[in-house]
Design a protein that fits this description.
The protein is an alpha/beta fold. The chain is built from 28 helices and 35 strands. Strands 5-4-16-15-14-6-7 form a 7-stranded mixed sheet, with helices on both faces. Strands 26-29-30-28-33-32-31 form a 7-stranded antiparallel sheet, covered by helices on one side. Strands 21-25-22-24-23-27 form a 6-stranded mixed β-barrel. The structure holds iron/sulfur cluster. The site of iron/sulfur cluster has 14 residues, from helix 1 and helix 7.
Length: 859
C-alpha cells in the first residue's frame, strides 16, 4: 500500500508492506529514501495511548450525542453573539479534504473568517512574501532544482535535521557536480557542520545580509537588466533601501560575508532554501522578500537549478494554503475581493459566506481570553503547548464556554476541552497532501482506526449537517470532497489563478484510490513569463535587552516531531537527544557560573522554565537554544511555549518564536532522581523532569529538584503519586534521611510496576541498565527489599546514540576516529556503517569528526 509520510513538508512517499515501512521508490520527493522518522512510522502504530470514544466533560458519550451538542452549541452561540463569536483552529497535519470542509464550514456557512491553523506558526510569512512578490502564493521551483544547482544556500533551515531527505539531495548534488552548500544560521547546526561555508548571521540579521548581497550584485554587474525590465518592477527602490544596510548589521565577520557574496555573485545556478529561521520572526515576510529579491534581480528563477524555495514545516501546510485554511485566505487561491467572493458564494451556494478575513492564531486566542470568542473547535493540534504565551492560551481555553477538541491522543489541549472527539490518524484515513514542491500525493488507509475514532472530514460534515447545511456537506467520502476542491480551482479561472487542478474534477472513486503523485501547475514559474515585484525591505530595529541579556532561539530536534504526541513514544527516536535541555556557549556558561548538566532557570517577560545546561561551542555568544518539543506530558519545567511572547510579523501575523529576550541563572540542585514505570505517567510537580520511552513499553523519567526533600510521612505518598501508584500496588520503601536517600518500588501480582530512586546527586543513582534488570524479574516473591538495595550501581557516563539506524554511539565513533585515524564521514560509514542508511546523522558525524583529536595532533 502506497501512502505519504505524515511528518515534514518534504512529503516522502511511503510503502507499507506486511506491516513494514519502506520508502516509495517511485515517489518524486524521495525516490525510495526515508529519514529515521519516516523509517520508524510502523513503531508509532501503537493504540495504547489513543483516544477511542467521544466524551463530554470527561464522560464517554455516543457520536450522535457529541455531534448534536457541538452543532447546538455552535448554532446557539452564533444566534446569540453573531458569527464572529465562533472559531476553528486547525492543523498542517490535516489532509486537504479535512481542511477543505473545515474552511467551507466556517467561512461559507458559519459565516466567519475565524479559521486559522498551526500553519500560522510555520509558514504564514512565506505566504505573505510570495503574494507580495508573485501576486499569488506560488513556490516557483521544483525539488529537481536542488539536484541541478551549483550553489545551494540554506537560510534559517537546519535541513539536515528538519528536511533530511532534501538535505541528502543537496549532498548528492555536491558529490555529483561539485555544488557548494552555504548555511546561513546563527547556530552551527548539523547542516552547518556539513556545509562548505557557515554564515553565522545574528538573529534577524538576514535582511541586512541579503540587502548587502543585492547591492553587491548590482555593483558587480550581475543584475539581469533584460529580465528585470521584462518581468519585474521595484528594483531601483529596493536597491535604494538596501543601500542603508551596513555589513555590521549582519553580525558576520567580513571574510565570511565576502566569501558568501563572492560565491553568490559568481554562480548562475543558485537555489536558496529557507524555512522557520526566516518565517518565525517579527520581520519574516520582509526576510522572504529579501531572498526573493536577489533571485529576481539576477533572473535566477524559473530555470533549472535556480530560484528561491520555501521548505514547509508540516506535511500538508501547502494543502491548507490551497484550500484557504488560513484566516486571511479564501479557497482555491481566491482573494477577498468582491468578484472572488461572489464567485465562491455562488459555487458553494453559501449566502452566509464571510466577506472579510478572520482572526489569525494569536488574535484568536486573545479574543477567546477577552470573551469575544465563545465556541472553538481545535483539531489535530496542541495549542496549549505549541502557541506562544502558552499559559495565556490555557487561560483562554479555560475561559471559553465551549471548547471542542478532535485529536488522536490526549494532550494538554484536550484537558481543557468540554467535548473531545477521537480522530483517525495516519494509516487510518484517506485523503491527499501537498508537499513543499506542489506535489499532491495520496495518504491511504491501511488499518482500522482504534475504538470509535473517525476522520476529521466526517466529523465536520456531520456537525454542518446538524446545523442545517446538509446539502453542502453531503459528501460520500474524501474522493467527493477532492472532486469539489478540484472543480473550484478551475471555476471562473481564466488563468488568473495559477492553482488549477480542475483536470481532476471528474475523477472517479477508483481513480482517486489509484491517484499517483502529481505536481500542479508548471514545473517552474517566472522564468520566461509572468511579472513579479522586487519589494523594498528594511532590516528591523534591534530589540533592547532591558535586563534580559540573552536571545532565546527555539527549534526542532533531529528525531522528534512537534509536541511529541506520536514520536515521543518511540524509543529509537529519543536515543539521540534524550532530554529537554538548554544549549549555551561555554564562555557564557562560565561567565554565569554554569557547568554542563547544571540546572538553569530561563526567565523571559512571559514565563520561566528550568532545564539542564548543554555547553555547545556552536552557539553564538549571548544566544541560547531550547527544543520546542517537550511538553507537560513528557517533562516538568521544560516546556518552552510559556517563555515566548506575543511579538509577531506585522504582515503575516506569524509569531517570533526564535528571538525572545531571556535571562539565565544557575539553580542549585537539592536532589536528583530517576523513576521507571510500566505505565505512562505524566511528571507533575515543581522540579525538572524529562521522560523517555524504553523498549518493552517502559518509561524512564530523569528528575532533579531545587527544593529540599522533606523526609517525613508524606514523602512516600508523594513518591507513590509521582509513580502513578495503583491502589492495589504494594509499596516497598527504603528511606535514609541522614544520607538524603529514598527508594520506592511498587509491586503488583509479584511484578515491579514502578520504582523511584532519589539521592542528593545524580552520581548516587543506579545505572539505567540496573533499573532495566529489575523489570525483567517475573516474580519478586519474598526478596522484595533486594530491588532497593545492592543492585544500584554508580551511573555510567551517558553515551548518546548518534546513528540510530545502525546503533552506533558517540563513544564508539570517537574511539574509531582515534584508533583508525578516520578523516571523513565516508570513512566512518565504511568502518562503522554510521550514516549509511537514512543519513540523518551525517551532520553530527561531521561535528564529532571536527571535535575529536587525531592521534598525530595530540602532543
Ligand atoms: S524527510 Fe520528512 S517526509 Fe521524508 S521521511 Fe523524513 S520526516 Fe518523512
Amino acid at each position: 500500500m502506497k501512502t505519504t509520510c505524515p511528518y515534514c513538508g518534504v512529503g516522502c512517499g511511503v510503502e507499507m508492506v506486511g506491516g513494514v515501512v519502506r520508502g516509495d521508490a517511485d515517489h518524486p520527493a524521495n525516490a525510495g529514501k526515508l529519514c529515521i522518522k519516516g523509517s520508524t512510522l510502523a513503531d508509532t502504530l501503537d493504540d495504547s495511548n489513543r483516544l477511542r470514544s467521544p466524551s463530554i466533560d470527561g464522560v464517554k458519550v455516543s457520536w450522535d450525542r457529541a455531534l448534536d451538542k457541538i452543532a447546538s452549541g455552535f448554532a446557539a452561540t452564533i444566534a446569540a453573539h453573531g458569527p464572529d463569536s465562533v472559531a476553528f483552529y486547525g492543523s498542517g497535519q490535516f489532509l486537504t479534504e479535512d481542511y477543505y470542509v473545515a474552511n467551507k464550514f466556517i467561512k461559507g456557512f458559519a459565516g466567519t473568517g475565524n479559521i486559522d491553523t498551526n500553519s500560522r506558526l510555520c509558514m504564514a510569512s512565506t505566504v505573505a512574501g510570495h503574494i507580495r512578490a508573485f501576486g499569488e502564493d506560488i513556490v516557483p521551483g521544483s525539488y529537481e532544482d536542488i539536484d541541478e544547482a551549483d550553489l545551494i544556500v540554506l537560510v534559517g533551515a537546519n535541513a539536515a535535521w528538519c528536511h533530511p531527505i532534501l538535505f541528502e539531495r543537496a549532498l548528492a548534488a555536491r558529490a555529483a557536480r561539485g555544488a557548494r552548500i552555504v548555511v546561513v544560521d546563527p547556530r552551527r547546526t548539523a547542516s552547518a557542520a556539513l556545509a562548505d561555508l557557515h554564515v553565522p548571521v545574528r538573529p534577524d540579521g538576514d535582511i541586512a545580509l541579503f540587502a548587502r548581497l543585492l547591492v553587491a550584485l548590482a555593483a558587480r554587474g550581475h543584475v539581469d537588466e533584460g529580465y528585470v525590465a521584462r518581468h519585474t518592477g521595484g528594483l531601483a527602490q529596493a536597491l535604494a533601501v538596501a543601500a542603508e544596510a551596513r555589513d555590521e548589521d549582519t553580525g558576520v565577520e567580513p571574510p565570511i560575508l565576502n566569501n558568501f557574496i563572492d560565491w553568490f555573485c559568481a554562480t548562475e545556478r543558485v537555489v536558496t532554501l529557507f524555512s522557520q529561521g526566516v518565517n518565525q520572526s517579527v520581520s519574516g515576510t520582509d526576510k522572504v522578500n529579501a531572498i526573493i529579491n536577489v533571485h529576481l534581480a539576477t533572473g535566477r528563477i524559473g530555470r533549472p537549478g535556480m530560484g528561491p524555495f520555501s521548505l514547509t514545516g508540516q506535511p500538508n501546510a501547502m494543502g491548507g494554503r490551497e484550500v484557504g485554511g488560513l484566516a486571511n485566505q479564501l479557497a482555491a487561491h481566491l482573494r477577498f475581493t468582491p468578484a472572488d467572493l461572489a464567485l465562491l458564494r455562488g459555487f458553494w451556494g453559501a449566502p452566509n459566506l464571510t466577506g472579510r478575513p478572520g482572526l489569525k492564531a494569536l488574535d484568536m486566542f486573545e479574543a477567546m481570553l477577552a470573551g469575544r470568542i465563545k465556541a472553538v473547535w481545535i483539531a489535530a493540534t496542541n495549542p496549549a503547548e505549541s502557541m506562544p504565551q502558552s499559559a495565556k492560551v490555557r487561560a483562554a481555553l479555560a475561559a471559553c464556554p465551549l471548547v471542542v477538541v478532535s485529536d488522536c491522543w490526549p494532550t494538554a489541549t484536550t484537558r481543557h476541552a468540554k467535548i473531545v472527539l477521537p480522530a483517525a490518524g495516519w494509516g487510518e484515513k484517506d485523503g491527499t497532501v501537498t508537499n513543499s514542491a506542489r506535489t499532491i500525493s495520496r495518504q491511504r488507509a491501511f488499518r482500522a482506526a482504534p475504538g470509535e475514532a473517525k476522520p476529521d472530514w466526517w466529523m465536520i460534515c456531520e456537525v454542518a449537517k446538524r446545523m442545517g447545511f446538509g446539502a453542502a456537506f453531503n459528501f460520500a467520502g474524501p474522493a467527493a470532497i477532492f472532486r469539489e476542491h478540484a472543480a473550484l480551482s478551475g471555476h471562473g479561472n481564466d488563468g488568473s489563478r495559477l492553482f488549477d487542478i480542475s483536470q481532476h474534477a471528474s475523477i472517479s472513486d477508483a481513480e482517486y484510490d489509484a491517484l499517483a503523485p502529481f505536481t500542479w501547475g508548471e514545473k517552474r514559474y517566472f522564468g520566461a513569463a509572468g511579472r513579479a515585484n522586487i519589494v523594498p525591505v528594511r532590516a528591523p530595529a534591534r530589540v533592547p535587552d532591558r535586563g534580559f541579556g540573552f536571545i532565546l532561539n527555539t527549534g526542532r530536534l533531529r528525531d522528534q516531531w512537534h509536541t511529541m504526541t506520536r514520536t515521543g513514544f518511540v524509543p529509537k527516536l529519543l536515543e539521540s537527544g534524550g532530554q529537554a535541555q538548554l544549549a549555551l556557549h561555554p564562555e557564557d556558561a562560565e561567565a554565569c557560573g554554569i557547568g554542563a548538566g547544571d540546572l538553569v532557570r530561563v526567565t523571559t517577560r512571559h514565563g520561566e522554565a528550568i532545564l539542564p545546561a548543554s555547553l555547545e561551542a556552536g552557539q553564538r555568544r549571548g544566544e541560547i537554544f531550547a527544543a520546542m518539543h517537550w511538553t507537560d506530558e513528557h517533562s516538568a519545567a521544560g516546556s518552552i511555549g510559556r517563555l515566548i511572547g506575543p511579538a509577531r510579523d506585522r504582515h503575516s501575523g506569524q509569531p517570533a518564536l526564535k528571538s525572545e529576550r531571556a535571562a539565565i541563572a544557575r539553580v542549585a540542585v537539592a536532589w536528583a532522581g530517576v523513576m521507571q514505570s510500566r505505565a505512562f505517567v505524566r511528571p507533575v510537580g515543581r522540579f525538572f523532569a524529562s521522560r523517555v520511552p524504553l523498549e518493552g513499553g517502559l518509561h524512564r523519567v530523569s528528575l532533579a529538584g531545587w527544593r529540599p526533600l522533606h523526609f517525613g510521612p508524606g514523602l512516600a505518598d508523594w513518591a507513590a503519586g509521582l509513580c502513578g501508584a495503583a491502589a492495589a500496588a504494594e509499596r516497598i520503601e527504603f528511606s535514609d534521611a541522614g544520607r538524603g536517600m529514598f527508594r520506592l518500588g511498587l509491586v503488583q501480582e509479584g511484578r515491579l510496576q514502578a520504582c523511584l530512586f532519589l539521592a542528593p546527586k545524580a552520581a548516587l543513582l543506579p545505572d539505567p541498565a540496573a533499573l532495566d534488570l529489575l523489570f525483567t524479574v517475573p516474580d519478586w516473591g519474598q526478596d522484595r527489599a533486594a530491588m532497593l538495595l545492592a543492585r544500584a550501581q554508580p551511573a555510567a557516563a551517558r553515551d548518546r546514540m548518534v546513528c540510530v539506524c545502525h546503533r552506533v554511539s558517540e563513544a564508539k565513533i570517537r574511539a574509531a576516529i582515534t584508533a583508525q585515524n578516520l578523516r571523513d564521514i565516508n570513512e566512518l560509514g565504511r568502518v562503522l556503517k554510521a550514516g549509511t542508511n537514512c543519513g540523518s546523522c551525517k551532520g553530527e558525524l561531521a561535528a564529532i569528526l571536527q571535535s575529536t583529536s587525531m592521534p598525530e595532533l595530540v602532543t
